[in-house]
From TrEMBL:
Binding-site residues for L-histidine, renumbered to this chain: Y58, N168, Y208, E284, V285, S286
Name of the protein this chain belongs to: Histidine N-alpha-methyltransferase
Pfam families listed in its UniProt record: Methyltransf_33 (PF10017)
Quaternary structure annotation from Swiss-Prot or TrEMBL: Monomer.
Pathway(s) of this molecule: Amino-acid biosynthesis; ergothioneine biosynthesis
Family indicated by similarity: Belongs to the methyltransferase superfamily. EgtD family.
InterPro entries reported for this sequence: EgtD, EgtD_Actinobacteria, EgtD_Methyltrsf_superfamily, MeTrfase_dom, MeTrfase_EgtD-like, SAM-dependent_MTases_sf
Gene3D superfamilies: Vaccinia Virus protein VP39 (3.40.50.150)
Biological role stated in the UniProt entry: Catalyzes the SAM-dependent triple methylation of the alpha-amino group of histidine to form hercynine, a step in the biosynthesis pathway of ergothioneine.
Residues annotated to bind S-adenosyl-L-methionine: G88, K94, D115, D143, F144
Keywords for the protein's UniProt record, in alphabetical order: Methyltransferase, S-adenosyl-L-methionine, Transferase
Designated gene of the protein: egtD
Organism per entry: Kribbella orskensis
The EC number(s) this enzyme carries: 2.1.1.44
Top class in the EC scheme: transferase
């Protein structure tokens, strides 16, 4: 028989609903309009993202997997981790590569997945519990920008933030995030960070504007989320997917462009939103990095460099930092 993993819940049931309302109001009354990328990930959005990770143009997942495969033993040796904390633990396959390396080294006892979605967390925690019977799995339902002080597990811990999701934060938010991670860690504990690297714009744009149109559907899905959760009446098919490389900020920006003038009603927040023909709504920033930039930001937050690894084509980096 399987033992249910322990799950701590730090979000009230209506936390996500309130946050979505507040974000939708702030973003859709702003000039230019924006929506935060975390709202892509309802069940359909999460499935579309899984499809993205298998697209020929979307290299980051494969590149990071290559690094994890090659380096998880080394990560175990360098850190001697007793606990692995994974922030935004969606990608169970990559997590397993890390768990395997750490377990084979013999020090790891506890896995702490943290996610805002309770259902995703329960599924992930149950699957890991089943496949790693000797591992203590202690899930946390929480927001990684708000609930880091509640991390369980025996030291030394490694906090893994993979996939390049750090790129979704704006530079100031990133600084705050690195500082709060450093503050919750004891001196000597670790952060393992995945960052996508700056490369030629054609490769970057193709990764966010694939020929099969999966990323376009993923982008438009945020409007479906607003239609369902807030009773909005977005005509989803009247918005076109746009992916642009912002060379000054070194980030990819995804937009949704209104193909015609539209008035959208969002009854749950009592808001009417007008779009001009061609007006663009910003839905995601995905920043790309250079080694020196990552080093400067982590150094500023008080971390010491532990290791820097890239894939065989230098597209993506995995780096290790000690608090
Ligand atoms: C999950 C945030 C790492 O920015 O590459 C993929 C999300 N957006 N295609 C990324 C995403 C469009 C992805 N992250």
């Amino acid at each position: 028989t399987l033992i249910d993993p322990e799950i701590d819940i730090h979000l009230t049931p209506d936390y996500a609903a309130r946050a979505l309302r507040a974000d939708a109001r702030a973003g859709l009354t702003a000039e230019p309009k924006w929506l935060a990328p975390k709202w892509f990930y309802d069940a359909r959005g999460s499935e579309l993202f899984e499809q993205i990770t298998r697209l020929p143009e979307y290299y980051p997942t494969r590149a990071e997997r290559e690094i994890l495969k090659a380096r998880s033993r080394e990560i175990a040796e360098l850190t001697g981790a007793h606990t692995l904390v994974e922030l935004g633990s969606g990608s169970s396959e990559k997590t397993r590569l890390l768990l395997d390396g750490l377990r084979d080294h013999g020090t790891l006892t506890t896995f702490v997945p943290l996610d805002v979605s309770e259902s995703a967390l329960r599924d992930a925690a149950a699957a890991i519990t089943a496949d790693y019977p000797s591992m203590v799995v202690h899930g946390v339902v929480g927001d990684f920008t708000a609930h880091l002080d509640k991390l369980p597990g025996e030291a030394p811990r490694v906090v893994a933030f993979l996939g390049g999701t750090i790129g979704n934060l704006l530079p100031d938010e990133r600084g705050d995030f690195f500082e709060s991670v450093r503050e919750v860690l004891e001196p000597g504990e670790w952060l393992l960070l995945g960052t996508d690297l700056v490369k030629d714009p054609a490769t970057l744009v193709a990764a966010y504007d694939d020929s099969a149109g999966v990323t376009a559907e993923f982008n438009r899905n945020v409007l479906r989320v607003l239609n369902r959760q807030l009773g909005a009446d977005f005509d989803v098919d009247a918005f076109s997917h746009v992916a642009i490389w912002d060379a000054d900020n070194e980030w990819i920006e995804m937009h949704l462009r209104a193909d015609r003038a539209m008035r959208v009603l969002i009854p749950e927040i009592r808001l009417e939103v007008n779009f001009a023909e061609g007006e663009e709504l910003s839905t995601e920033v995905s920043a790309k990095f250079h080694r020196h930039g990552v080093e400067a930001e982590l150094d500023k937050a008080g971390f010491t460099s532990g290791a820097w690894w890239t894939d065989s084509q230098d597209r993506f980096a995995l780096s290790l930092w000690q608090a």
